[in-house]
């Protein structure tokens, strides 16, 4: 019957589609492997296998020389300082950009110049965050030279653009009723946004801020390759000198920094009990109530 024939054809099409996707992925991976490894080339440099053993063995005996530990301490302090400044700049840009991009922060009817400006800003932020911070550092080094400001800007620009997107989406997730009520009551835009958007989103924004700081720590180490200083620069010097014991000491310092930031982040977030203004008011009244 014609219906049975159509069902058979449909079944073959479904089977071909199921087979087509894995075949396409396999073909893409095969092309990538051939492209990455030239014909006749070695996938692994066999001469470096012995060196890997030396590097691994050095992990058991990192450098504990007092003079070098002092250098590591100075480099770690520089890394934290650059990461803090870069994160602070990124969060300022992210908060301002998030308010501009958020639909909740604006009235439903906007004049076309404002809509065009928001669209241009959205496109500019996409372009900025599409460029890696190391590429930004290379651009800025060419213009400003080896200056600490280079590392701060290289972190603040792409991280700020990413934060603006996240903050804008976070603001849009808040119910718009309180903000509309404040506007209808005649509240100014600034206080209305502060009371309607920030309390409900504060825990999420705080958590994301700590995440950005952790990313900034790692990125600052990478930027040290471009001459930004800190642990990354000392790692580059030790790697070039093949002082593997010093390399592991620097890696341990980075791990300690990351662990301390994680502990600090968990402590602060666990103490943030304020989710909304209503929750804060209820908690305050309970604190005043006699036991």
Automatic annotation (TrEMBL):
Query: Which of UniProt's keywords are assigned here?
Result: Cell membrane, Membrane, Transmembrane, Transmembrane helix, Transport
GO BP annotations of the record are: transmembrane transport
Which residues are in the ABC transmembrane type-1 domain? Answer: 76-269
Topology in the lipid bilayer? Multi-pass membrane protein
* Annotated TM spans: 75-101, 134-157, 192-211, 220-241, 247-264
Q: Note the SUPFAM superfamilies from the entry.
A: MetI-like (SSF161098)
Cite a GO CC annotation.
plasma membrane
Localisation per UniProt entry: Cell membrane
Carries keyword Acyltransferase?
no
The record's similarity note reads:
Belongs to the binding-protein-dependent transport system permease family.
- What name does the UniProt record give this protein? ABC transporter permease subunit
Species for this entry:
Streptomyces boncukensis
């Amino acid at each position: 019957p014609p219906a049975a024939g159509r069902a058979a054809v449909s079944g073959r099409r479904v089977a071909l589609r199921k087979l087509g996707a894995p075949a396409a992925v396999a073909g893409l991976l095969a092309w990538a492997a051939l492209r990455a490894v030239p014909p006749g080339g070695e996938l692994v440099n066999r001469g470096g296998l012995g060196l890997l053993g030396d590097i691994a063995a050095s992990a058991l005996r990192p450098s504990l020389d007092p003079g070098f530990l002092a250098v590591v301490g100075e480099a770690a302090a520089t890394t934290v300082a650059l990461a803090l400044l870069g994160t602070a700049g990124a969060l300022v840009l992210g908060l301002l950009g998030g308010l501009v991009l958020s639909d909740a922060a604006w009235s439903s009817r906007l004049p076309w110049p404002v809509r065009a400006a928001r669209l241009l800003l959205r496109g500019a932020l996409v372009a900025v965050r599409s460029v890696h911070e190391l590429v930004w550092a290379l651009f800025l080094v060419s213009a400003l030279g080896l200056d600490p400001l280079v590392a701060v800007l290289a972190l603040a620009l792409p991280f700020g653009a990413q934060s603006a997107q996240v903050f804008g989406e976070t603001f849009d997730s808040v119910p718009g009723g309180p903000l509309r009520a404040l506007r209808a009551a005649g509240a100014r835009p600034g206080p209305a946004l502060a009371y309607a958007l920030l309390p409900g989103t504060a825990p999420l924004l705080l958590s994301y801020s700590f995440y950005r700081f952790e990313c900034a720590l790692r990125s600052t180490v990478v930027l040290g390759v471009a001459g930004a200083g800190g642990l990354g620069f000392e790692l580059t010097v030790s790697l070039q000198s093949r002082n593997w014991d010093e390399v592991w000491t620097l890696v341990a310092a980075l791990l300690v920094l990351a662990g301390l930031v994680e502990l600090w982040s968990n402590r602060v977030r666990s103490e943030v009990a304020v989710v909304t203004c209503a929750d804060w008011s209820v908690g305050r009244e309970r604190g005043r109530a006699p036991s």
